[in-house]
Please model this.
Amino acid sequence: MRALGLMSGTSADGVDAALLDFAAPGEQAYVGMYSQAFAAPLRDMVLAANGPLPVEQMAILDRHLGACYADVAQAAIAQMGPVDFIALHGQTIRHQPRAAPGFTLQIGSAADVAVATGLTVVHDFRRADVAAGGEGAPLVPPFHHYLFQNDQARVILNLGGMANLTWIPGAGDPRPLQAFDSGPGNVLIDAAVRLLSRGTAQCDLHGRLGAAGKVQEKPLMQWLKHAYFQQVPPKSTGRESFDDSLVRSWWADWAYGEADFVATITALTAGSVAEALRNWMPAASELLVFGGGAENPTLINALRAALPELPVRLGAQVSGIPAQALEALAFAWLGGQCLLGRSLPYAQVTGVRQSVVLGNILPGKNWPKLLAVLATYPEKAFINGH
Ligand SMILES: Nc1ncnc2c1ncn2[C@@H]1O[C@H](COP(=O)(O)OP(=O)(O)O)[C@@H](O)[C@H]1O
Ligand SMILES: [Mg+2]
Model:
């Protein structure tokens, strides 16, 4: 069984597709990836969806995203060969699991993807976790556990728009998996660069601007007092807490240079990850970094400086899985768990009160054939270790 995972995260940079082969063990299950940036008008619509969003506009954005996902799926399949199903994360436009009632909303029409490809699509992974009292995020930690459990405890850091941490116990250690969002990943750095470049640049490419600036300790200490950083896990966050408007308000009070602003926001990002690790995670032997932030050397250097006690390694170099493929790959795996009707141990991760199967299944033309393939998988296949 081969699955294509499609991920478009809070960075709103575009879509990452990764192909997972369920027949191959552990890290060898990664087959390849395909990425496509959002066209500028779609990216602007996604970013604007953070603000007030009339229902017609949301329905239109849902179709535009669906068409984009369908294009990416077709291009990825043309490049990497056929798959048995697609796992579609969708685009998060709201994430407020702690409101009353809590909610999380991912859009991007799965029906468009199923119609264009003829394949079964698993989508809407977060809602059932929220319905059962969980944060609905982060969902990738059980996959981190499956892929990366080692003799000694390890931490996986995903630097997407937001940053999430997974602590994986060493083999034989009975302590449970632990994970939560530490706060911003690239989102504030991207917002600062967008603001300073008047929208002509979307990220601090290779960390060049941040590297040219000086970290200003006084505002850094002030920013680190953000309420989210004090919240006790399980916790998850999104653009509701960290977005362009926060960066604009910081910039309005900024008394130093532009490069210093980016350098200090980069240091805040690294510092909040380091604090979260020290406050809420058991000791580990190393930290593996994935996500687009792994491509920003200034951010990686800031992490190394903030965590002198912990070896910080690029996950792609350790595993051979590209930094921006891992999350898409995780959703491919989660799609398989859904199709097999399995719930995963999220209690320590999302705070969910009961075990629930995550995802909605939209049967495609290949549904009967897919059912026959699924029937050949034994109960414990690709859950516990390699
Ligand atoms: N070459 C690079 N230099 C600096 N930053 C980069 C580079 N490549 C990716 N990034 C950062 O990674 C982000 C995308 O990361 P990604 O893992 O796709 O996040 P998300 O899941 O939120 O979409 C970009 O917005 C950018 O901040
Ligand atoms: Mg992305």
User: Anything to note?
Assistant: The chain has a mean pLDDT of 96. The longest strand covers residues 14-21.
